[in-house]
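Intended use. Records like the one below are meant for learning the mapping from a protein sequence to its folded structure. Do not use them to infer anything beyond what is encoded.
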Amino acid sequence: MNQLQIVSSMPSAHSAARTANPAAELLHVEHTRAVTHVQLRRATKRNALNDALIERLRQVFTTLPPATRAVVLSGDGEHFCAGLDLSSLTERSVVDGIAHSRSWHHAFEEIQFGRVPVVAVLKGAVVGGGLELASAAHIRVAEASTFYALPEGQRGLFVGGGGSARIPRLIGAARMADMMLTGRVYAAEEGSRVGLSQYVVPEGAGLTTAFELAEKIASNAALSNFAVLHALPRIAEMGQSEGLFTESLMAAIAQGDEGAKTRMKAFLEGRAGKVRRADGHAAVAKPVKPAKPAKPTKAIGKTGKTGKTGKTGKAGKTGKIATTGKQAGAKR
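Structure written out for the chain above:
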């Protein structure tokens, strides 16, 4: 992919500037047309999260360029994110602990309820806070090496980065409890089946797949994407009556947008692509031709002559059983 690279997480190419702002090296940010790539850059720590990295994530997602229409979130090295960097964990008072947890909430809310959809590329460890981070994304693409775990129970901890609010909405509270109580680990395929990812791809194919999906997303009407990000999850939490009313409001707002009108006009004029099945064929039902009427079955009649064999007696008439030679039909 021919990329226009803008490393916004590094204010200068000079090492002196990087040394002055070491937190900037925790993230690598590139802008390619309408897609921004945000990559965790702590490979030697399996991209474990510390306070500085959390703050950088919040800053990046709140200051995305106006041209950005979708984000790809990935991790450098062999792992997406191994969760909280335990080496940075210090003793905190209850008040300080609440404030620390809330700082994670603020950062991840900028991902889940930000301006643009986020596609996360998962591989290797997606553990603890790493799974909390992944659950804030809207689309998750898991490579074959991906494994999921919530070891907080074994560490004497509890999730604090929004996992208890987001992960049960993906896999259910019972499965999350199982992961925390027993240390259960899900592999890529099983994780996808229970709802931890929407896609599973071969090892090394995650980033390519994520960019393909992000480019599709970026081509959507901005207001439609916004509605999916902000209205859909809230409607899902409402009672049916309130949800249906809110849906009507959002539908009316979306279809009144100029982008929606332009796209509908293009579709009606045959200038927009049709929905196709996964195999590439147009998903348009073809008229079924009426079956030809079956030929009437003939009654068993005369069989062809074989030599001088007598005629087979006509069906329904008993007493005239064909025999060979002149005995056929002999009178008694």
